[in-house]
User: Fold this.
Amino acid sequence: MVKSYDETETLGLTGSKLIFSSRSVRNTTISLISSTGELPVPVYIIETPNSWKDPPNTIYKIGNSEQKEQLAMLGWKAFNKDWIDIRGERKMLKDVLPTKGFLR
Assistant:
């Protein structure tokens, strides 16, 4: 059993690893590989359209039937505020993700 930072218990993931398909956040697949050495299983996909503007990154969860379910969109802006849209509710990214550590 593994304890996360908020003290919730995670069962069955001891020794498991997350593998990223690239070093970039853009167009990346995040896969889970278990401690038993099974083949990596895609769990999330991050897509960024190729554009000269500041397109949003879209984060999808991969279900059992390998269908993509949109979880969130992230807007990274060079001169404006960064935002995140989760299930239709838009918030400023600084309000969702702390700037230092787990607590501000």
User: Anything to note?
Assistant: Residues 19-96 form one domain. The chain has one domain: 19-96. The first strand starts at residue 2 and ends at 3. Strands lie at 2-3, 9-10, 17-20, 28-33, 41-47, 57-62, 68-75, 83-86, 89-92.
